[in-house]
Amino acid sequence: MSQWREDVPTEGSVHLPPDAHALDGIGRNHSLETALADLIDNAIDASATEVVVRFVQRQGKLRSLYLADNGHGIAPAEIDSAMTVGGRRDYHRGSLGKFGLGMKAASFSQARSLTVLTRTPDGVASGRRWHLDSAADFRCDIVAPEFVMEEVDRDWGFKSSGAGGRTVIRWDDVTGFTATDDRDRVQSFLTATITKILNHLGLVLHRFLAKGALRVFVDVEDVDRGAIGARFEAEPLNPFGYHHPGNPGYPKILTAKRDGMSLNLACHIWPGRSKLAAFKLPGGAIERQGLYFYRADRLLHAGGWDGLTVADPRLQLARIAIDITDDIAGLFSMNPEKSRITVGPDFAHLIEAARSADGSTIGDYLRDAESTYKRSRERSRDRRKMLPPGKGFEPSLKRAIGDEIPFVDGEEPVDIRWRRGDGLDFFVVDRESRTIWLNDRYRQSIIGEARGGLNDAPLVKALLYLLIEDVFRGEYLGAKDKDNIALWQEVLTAAVRSQLARSTRQ
Ligand SMILES: Nc1ncnc2c1ncn2[C@@H]1O[C@H](COP(=O)(O)OP(=O)(O)O)[C@@H](O)[C@H]1O
Ligand SMILES: [Mg+2]
């Protein structure tokens, strides 16, 4: 047996660039919406204030997808490195870019061809294209300058000049598009896809969108008609966007410090049984309990406990926000799609060591989240059943009432309507037709500037419903009910007459 040698002897070398099929394989974990989010990260890094996602349809069929932004563009000296797989630049603090991979991985996960067309604020344009079918020797096409100008100057509908430049990413041969040219089917594909895009971008970019730092639009261009259809705008979907916390002691910040690193856990408890989209989120609230990681304000990972505890319906109100700052970045690793954070072993130790100002721990928090959930279930079970609201209530008001109050089964609802009253009484309780009639003479002073209609005056109607619903129950009107009605009549009529006097005085 020969002696083991530390160094490997060589004689010369051969040049072996990666096979172009390597490009096919990158970004496999992307979906259309995560891929677009990655391109928008680049626009944010380039100080864009507006982004447009545009589907292009010709003869019914979807052909291309564009993503245009009003950021600072790419200088000609930088564009080749921007197109290079793994081509990195100097990243400033807070930059969302990292691996020099994002744009290429995102694009090739969805399309066979990626074209980048860009113009800097001083008007210098450049364009490059990768096509997977002809990338065999890694030759990247240089786009004709006139065409670059034409594309960047298309009508993108920007409302402001942003950073003064413009970048357009164009995908052709999009693999995820439906292949049909049947307009109805394309339309349903677009509706579903655009909804998914708006939801995902609304979620991962919610901090940017809520600050007003960025607006994201989605539209569809029909090139045969030369027309751009309706525009949709992404709305912020804040996974911590409740109105009141489910437990008054929250949110609580738990902090762990070690080796100069400081990890902050913002522990939130949602109110029970919330119907807000921000609670349900795509995927469902139960799936979305747990940790939410942000890096430079971009949400990277939405829910899951990463081994900290196990998912449980009773913990569905618990969500923790963690901002990954540069000094603690070493605790985590991020997949190249930037859609998942993996925590290292130190993370679990730090979490166990974390304390709030009042000394409480992660265990205390989880117990509080669980008991808040249990209490919210008990409360709704114990509530007295009521007759449902019927005509005269706005649908959103009916929903809010239904979320809070269990209804008596199989009973006619209570309506609230306006009609001309003979006297001055504000309302009439009509048990026969199960209606509260409001005296029309006070209508204008109650609704003020608002438009009248069947469902007007929601506040007054909600109050009357809560007050009066009870007297519609039972076989006959008892003495106590009659006295209550007389009392309400006196007080409310005095109140509404005083309101009328004030509104006519102005
Ligand atoms: N919309 C854009 N505006 C300006 N520059 C961009 C844009 N998209 C991409 N770039 C440039 O291309 C480079 C490569 O992007 P990418 O592949 O996503 O890698 P990374 O963002 O990690 O650097 C970026 O670093 C940036 O310089
Ligand atoms: Mg990037």
UniProtKB/TrEMBL annotation:
Q: Which domain of life is it from?
A: Bacteria
GO MF terms here are: kinase activity
Q: InterPro entries under this entry? A: HATPase_C_sf
Q: Which UniProt keywords apply?
A: Kinase, Transferase
Region feature Disordered, mapped onto this chain: 1-21
Q: Does the keyword Transmembrane helix apply?
A: no
Keyword Kinase set for record: yes
The name this protein carries in UniProt is Histidine kinase-, DNA gyrase B-, and HSP90-like ATPase
Where does this protein come from, organism-wise?
A: Asanoa hainanensis
